[in-house]
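Posting here for the record, re: iron/sulfur cluster.
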Amino acid sequence: MKYRIKVNKDECLEDAVCFSMDPDHFEEDEDGKAQVVGGSMEGNISAGEFDDDGYEDAKEAADLCPAEAIIVEKLE
Ligand code: SF4
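Prediction output follows.
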């Protein structure tokens, strides 16, 4: 499945939830905030696309983000 992940760094609380539970998609940047593995910056949004079976893992991380800073959206 193809999907896109976005992390709004302005909203990130630096609590490490996402990159602790799903390091395939999320990692810590130099400021302690989350970013998308292999992603790129679009303004204050870290974004990256994937094509694998990890969609549910990414969605779970997004659901548990206390800041609601993560968006996971399916691509066609
Ligand atoms: S779970 Fe949310 S608040 Fe926590 S590090 Fe990830 S993006 Fe930031």
